Amino acid sequence: MNFMTEKHDPSSSPLDLDNIRRTLTRLEDTIIFLLIERAQFAHNPRMYSKDGFADVLHRDGFSGSLLEWMLKETETMHAKMRRYESPDEYPFTPRDQLPAAILAPLNYPPLLVNPAAINVNRDIQRFYLDSIVPAITRTVTDRLGKEDDDGNYGSGCTRDIECLQAISRRIHCGMFVSESKFLSAPSSFIPHILTPNPSALEALITKPAVEAALLVRLEKKARWYGAELGPDGEPLVGDGARREKVSPEEVVRLYREYVIPLTKVVEVEYLLHRLDGLSQAEIDELARRG
After folding, report:
1. Which pLDDT tens digit goes with each residue over 220-229?
2. pTM
């Protein structure tokens, strides 16, 4: 799903803020549904340990976890299909470990300045594995008495990769938001870029009312999308409360504590480098635009 090729309005720019917001709103749906899919399996911490599958992976020289191995294998295939040539896609595997695309490159317009220098996937993977997965997954006890392990390693890793990629795309789209806001009022940003003043830049891009509305919308979506429905299509109730596939509170927490703050990190970091390589005359011309 690439908003640069989506047809909202043929005459509108990919940097139109309304277009970007529509993409981010659809990504909310994608992320919620993927979290629901991951929540059907147990935590399975063995998948995330470097020693969890050492007997299988280490004999081929790979020293990471099962998830890291599957990420690299998956992203190797995606790289061959030119996924990471799209300006809104960022791999978790270092780019120098991925192959070149086997398809001819697409002619993307140069919308961003120095985007390849920003990649927060390591932070995304850390908070997802440490905080999100344990909170949304089921607690089970296997036949050996080991908790939080149901043996669905392939399925669990597959769902993890889908969640990670969707969250990564959501957060890195912050660069398009920054570019759109910068172009709407360059003179407001330029002094704080030249100083530099990250706090002032964050204040310029932060819209508390928009963030509050986002969290309310997420809670409602998660409650409806995650409801267990009976044969009649009505939500099932247990112990006086609706039965849910994933906690709406955890979805909101994901955005409030991780997605929104990390998106701001991406946006500010992008702005700090927005003028890199420009001459003083070019910067002055931007400042005169408003």
Report:
1. 999 999 888 7
2. 0.91
